[in-house]
Amino acid sequence: MKNLLLISIMTLGAAACVSTELSNQHTPYDATKDARIRLYGQNGRPSFLTVNIDGKKEKVTVGGGLGQAFSSMVGAKDNESIGMPETPLSKNPSAHSKLLSSIFFKEFVIPANAEIQVTNEIISMDSTHTHYTATEKITTVIKGKSCKGNTVTFIPEAGKDYEVAPISTDRECGVTVYEIK
Q: Which domain of life is it from (predicted)?
């Protein structure tokens, strides 16, 4: 029980330290020099975006921040759109939700002609439960599946919109980048 509590505290502490915004979040979208990107996340399945903005490497997480993860767990996390066109996945992302883990998306303005990296992972929460019968002690250990997805690197073009869709199974990690037409 102490180990589970320690792991939970460490996970919450690490989740509280992630960035969910880029430094250019209040800069208006300019189709002549920017592109836009939509990432999906959920509790236990964050997605990551790494980009250089004004010579500074920035990394944001969708679904891995403490507030986002908790809101996803209770089904209260809303999508954050900046006006990108809908896709079949973005019209109803909750159709892909799991118990205690609602999928949601967040959209960002990113610089065109700059290298972008996207990836995701599944973070498992292992647990141990011990109970006693009249004659014995029974310990149950549940090991969750965890994995780190492939990293996709691409260079977005000005005026284009991109969607980073997670692989939709519980056994695999990874993302696919689509250009929204």
A: Bacteria
